[in-house]
């Protein structure tokens, strides 16, 4: 099942089903918003899925991802992991902040969730001096998860997969990180690709609770990275269980993978500028690549090996707020 | 103006105005929920205030704080500061994590906001082994704040004051803090006292954007602390401006002060067990006070010098989840 949210003048927008090939869509008959669907998944999802199957056979209206809001335009909770060890190790080495010392516990912070920016919207940020960076990630959306749910049981609560750009301000990040309190100023609102999908849409590429597909990132039209999503040190089911250790997770909680990264980042590239700068610091003694300038574009997308689109593209420009 | 939320079967409950002496209340005619009031404060608050003034003259129904939900039963954003330097310095010294090094920047993290527990509800937590602790705090609720708002302008967005118990799991806190990512497992849902008030209800005790009143904390009926709220290193207007540096703040954002604490904590006591344990470590070389056990009660309240109640009491028991 593939879902998107189109604007209707309300903060939560209108839920649509989207055809597998992303060419057509239809207003969801059985759930007005993604949040309502997440709150009553067992009851509503089978009905929405029937509409999705019918849409794949024909009908609907043309789907325009440029009109979409984020699939969940706002969420009660966004917990972002940092599950790619190659990224964590490099950041630790370069910035001297050892976040990744304990391999028995996933890294995770709670971030801004009152809005997720539309996939094609301009992104207003206050200053280029803050070190504007993108972070290409995958994420999951779960229904309500009771406190204490273990990883195996948590896997059944992973209802949808999403693709996220976790905008980051790199000059502020280490200052906030050193306090131990996590990020507030360094993590403004994230963006989300237009289409959320059930895990079965990935077929064999949904493997061990990970997205086993490359995330293609371009910066101002130039290829920047195509790291594969599989190399997470913890699967999404383990991230859900970690989050639910001392709290009930509200329906519609979104959990992120952290910047997609592979050990061979010199070959496949990176999903954020900070990682490329880290490689340059290792190889050349100093970073050569600057951060984003106002007017810069970033595009992120992911497809099945046969070319079938999955989440659609994040394709946006940073502008002065 | 004084406001509370009573249950009506929906997650956001029904907004009520509460008489100044907390004896009577009336269903708010002009805003069904606190969230709606925060989203249209300029339009709705004058009307709700007229109803509040009329209620003070008479009428309404008996007010029972034990029936209340949190004034905002859920919020899109909860940003908790740690603005009391005496607390920060002690924690730094005892636990060796130097969060408070930079006095030019407030400390702040983003926490769980999809639910705030009712003031008299039992608090289900998974294990006594996690080091269950309370944290008595003051907080503010703001309407929408544009990105880049400075402290002076931010003061006009402080619409309501609240009193919060920021439940904390102390065995997990330093583990998460050392990662730099802030707290997820160590910070389960907070509780909120039943009544939210406009700053004018404090009279002269709303001073320099701080609550200049003692927060009385008892643990199992025994006095534990009565620290005054004034000693914040940053006022709430500065906390709002800090939060809004790189993001628009959504209406209904709640910002906390951090554990209320004074330099003379040996005389006035503390608002959390961790601080008392820190004092014991300094004075006696080891902590003597344990954390909370299931069945333990904590009560927190604050009144004007003439005895007028402000927020009502948080009065609750921790239980096994």
Strand order of the largest sheet of chain A: 6-5-18-9-10-12
Please indicate the percent range of residues of chain A in DSSP E strands (runs of 2 or more).
25-35%
At CATH level 3, the topology of the largest domain in chain A is: Fumarylacetoacetate hydrolase, domain 2
End-to-end distance of chain A: 36 Å
What does this molecule look like?
2 copies of one chain form a homodimer. By secondary structure, chain A is an alpha+beta fold. Chain A has 2 domains: 1-63, no CATH class; 70-320, Fumarylacetoacetase-like, C-terminal domain (Fumarylacetoacetate hydrolase, domain 2, Alpha-Beta Complex), CATH 3.90.850. Chain A has 8 helices and 20 strands. The first copy, chain A, has helices at 34-39, 41-57, 85-95, 151-154, 173-178, 236-243, 265-268, 273-284, and strands spanning 2-6, 14-18, 24-27, 61-62, 78-81, 108-111, 123-125, 132-133, 136-142, 158-165, 168-169, 191-192, 196-197, 206-207, 210-211, 214-219, 222-228, 253-256, 297-301, 314-320. In chain A, the strands form 5 sheets. In chain A, strands 6-5-18-9-10-12 form a 6-stranded mixed beta sheet, with helices on one face. A 5-stranded antiparallel beta sheet of chain A has the order 4-3-2-1-13. In chain A, strands 7-20-19-16-17 form a 5-stranded mixed beta sheet, with no helix packed on it. In chain A, strand 1 and strand 2 (14-18) form a beta hairpin. In chain A, helix 3 (85-95) packs across helix 8 (273-284). The first copy, chain A, is globular, with a radius of gyration of 19 Å. At the A-B interface, strand 6 and helix 5 of A face strand 6 and helix 5 of B.
């Amino acid at each position: 099942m593939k879902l998107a949210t189109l604007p209707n003048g309300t903060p939560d927008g209108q839920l649509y089903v989207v055809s597998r090939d992303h060419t057509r869509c239809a207003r969801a008959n059985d759930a007005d918003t993604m949040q309502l669907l997440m709150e009553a998944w067992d009851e509503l999802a089978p009905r929405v899925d029937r509409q999705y199957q019918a849409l794949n056979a024909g009908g609907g209206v043309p789907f325009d991802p440029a009109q979409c809001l984020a699939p969940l335009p706002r969420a009660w909770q966004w917990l972002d992991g940092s599950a790619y060890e190659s990224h964590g190790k490099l950041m630790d080495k370069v910035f001297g902040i050892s976040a990744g010392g304990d391999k028995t516990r996933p890294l995770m912070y709670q971030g801004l969730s009152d809005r997720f920016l539309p996939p094609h919207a301009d992104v207003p940020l206050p200053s280029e001096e803050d070190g504007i960076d993108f972070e290409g990630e995958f994420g999951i959306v779960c229904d309500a998860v009771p406190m204490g749910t273990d990883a195996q049981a948590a896997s059944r609560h992973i209802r949808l997969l999403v693709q996220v750009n976790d905008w980051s301000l790199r000059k502020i990040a280490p200052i906030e990180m050193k306090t131990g309190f996590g990020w507030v100023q360094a993590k403004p609102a994230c963006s989300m690709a237009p289409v959320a999908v059930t895990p079965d849409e990935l077929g064999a590429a949904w493997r061990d609770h990970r997205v086993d597909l490359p995330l293609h990132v371009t910066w101002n039209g130039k290829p920047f990275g195509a790291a594969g999503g599989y190399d997470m040190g913890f699967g999404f089911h383990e991230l859900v269980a970690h989050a639910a250790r001392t709290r009930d997770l509200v329906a519609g909680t979104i959990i992120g993978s952290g910047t997609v990264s592979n050990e061979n980042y010199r070959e496949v590239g990176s999903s954020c500028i900070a990682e490329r700068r880290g490689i340059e610091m290792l190889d050349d003694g100093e970073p050569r690549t600057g951060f984003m300038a106002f007017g810069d574009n970033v595009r992120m997308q992911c497809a099945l090996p046969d070319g079938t689109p999955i989440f659609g593209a994040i394709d946006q420009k940073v502008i002065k707020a």
